[in-house]
Amino acid sequence: MQRVFTQTRTALILLILTLPFSTTLSFAVQTPPLNTLSPTTIPSKTVLFSSSSSSSSSSSTSHYLGHNDPTHIPSVLQNITSLREQDTLAAQTQIPAATLRNQIKLTHSTLGPPLNLLDHIKSSHPVMSLAGEFKRASPSKGVISAARGPEGAAAQALKYFKAGASVISTLTEATHFQGCLEDLTAVRTATQAYATANNLQRPAILRKDFITSRYQILEAAAAGADTLLLIVAVTPSDVLQDLIEYSRSLGMEPLVEVHDEKEVPVAIAAGALVIGVNNRNLHNFKVSKRAVSASCGTSCTLRAALLLIVFGISDKADPNAVPAYYPTAKLRLSYGGFCCCAPPPPPLLLGSHMCVAWQMSLTTTPVTANLLTEAGVNFTPGDPAATHVLCSLSGMSCSDDVAMFRDAGVSLCLIGESLMRAVDPEAAIKALGLDPDAVTGDDSSMGGAYTDSLKITKVCGITNPADALVACR
Predict the structure, then answer these.
(1) pLDDT at 3 over 70
(2) Is-above-0.90 flag for pTM?
(3) How many angstroms separate the CA atoms of 406 and 347, rounded?
């Protein structure tokens, strides 16, 4: 029986290896419920983003209410944002907006005015701007870093800045990301002091949060932020436009995030100049399939997305812990068989020790670039006449990724988890090849290239987590 299994398994590997690179594999990524991946609690009920609270036919809200789908169920992202809005309402009872406005004046007088994010990114050309992100945890990964207190945030930010990051992104949401505004202030103060002492241009400080109100923008400015994140997926278009304009009234050019092709025209119409693309579907924290279908014309497919087949992992191994062994992995593991639209193959083919790992799709950014071009938006890196810049906000881990996005017209890449997990963030940043004139042959040492092509590795004889770690390295 074992011999038959081995022969069949080998045949399966050979079959996959002979598939052409253009092959479309009809696999759907299925991940465990979010609350099984994280020690934090996701609110089960939304207040602000219920389809019953607004007209689903409204053009200003359809992009976050399921595109006029009356059966739309609020997503994880929308629920987190709803909880964040409740936090903000509570904060306003403690610190009035007038107090924040006075604090903004004090911040500007002691630390100086905000940097303009658009100009700051454009000035880096031909070097790819890097936003190094500080986050202690995430809803899908749980705890990422043990860095405690604002001093931990400042220390990590300094590592990023010294290695070449021109933007520092700081998570300030407490419940799911374990961040706070004090982290941001510490990051601004520490990086500015180092820049002044060494006669350098300081990095721009980004407040990354779930922002839906003017009050949160006041908070960001008072804490020392140069810019802030606005997420199209959770903001009605009229509110988005108001928040963009209000940010600018305080001297901050916001980073406006889209995560699929339907949100791009919303961002453009609202007046966004710095547009960031999240290659992950933030509604469910899964690999984006919509972007792939827009690229290859086939719905619910991942073209050549099967990357890694690992045999020999112990039945007792925790599949959710495997990605943590590899600091730069962007993999979602399924334990015990294929995740596919069709019925799964028989156990004889797969065995009880099989894991299938999936890559995050990186096609959302090129799709967005094409849409911007079609809309007549000039985001060409290095062009003094460019009115916009395009940023990629997830999925990068090596110089191949950076090169791919550079070819698509991207001016800034944001990298978070892999840098937080890196033993040596400076070496990891060097390996990204941000300066195209300084890229060497070994600059992809941070990890394999996560591009939209077929890469398969078969590893035999792994029976414990320690061996899996060695194999990944």
Answers:
(1) no
(2) no
(3) 43
pLDDT band at 71 (very low <50, low <70, confident <90, very high): confident
Token reading at 79: 């629920």
Chain CA centroid to CA 200, Å: 28
State the CB neighbour count (10 A cutoff) for residue 461: 8
Give the integer Cα–Cα distance in Å for 141 and 139.
6
Q: What is the pLDDT of residue 213?
A: 97
Structure tokens at 157: 């930010």
74: its two tokens: 């609020």
Four-residue CA torsion sign, 181, 176, 394, 165: positive
The domain ranges of the chain are: 2-19+306-360+454-472, 90-288+363-438
The C-alpha R_g of the chain, in whole angstroms, comes to 22
Euclidean distance between CA atoms 414 and 404, whole angstroms: 14
Q: Which two tokens stand for residue 211?
A: 């922002």
- Mean pLDDT lowest among 115-129, 240-254, 329-343, 401-415: 329-343
* DSSP per-residue string spanning 399-467: HHHHHHHHHTTEEEEEE-HHHHH-S-HHHHHHTT--SGGG--TTTTTTS----SS---EEE----SHHH
Q: Do the bridges between strand 286-287 and strand 280-281 make them parallel or antiparallel, or are there none, so unpaired? A: antiparallel
| Spatial CA neighbour of 410 closest among 381, 451, 377, 439 | 381
Among 228, 247, 244, smallest CA distance to 236 is for: 244
- The conformational region for residue 129 under phi > 0 = left, psi -120 to 50 = alpha, else beta, is beta
Interhelix angle 181-197/214-223, rounded to 10 degrees, is: 40
Cβ distance 63 to 82 under 8 Å? Answer: no
CA neighbours within 13 Å on the CB side: how many for 191? 35
In CATH, 90-288+363-438 is 3.20.20.70: yes
- In single-letter form, the type of residue at position 210 comes to F
Side-chain-side CA neighbours of residue 176 (13 Å)? 23
Q: Is residue 272 helix, strand or coil? A: coil
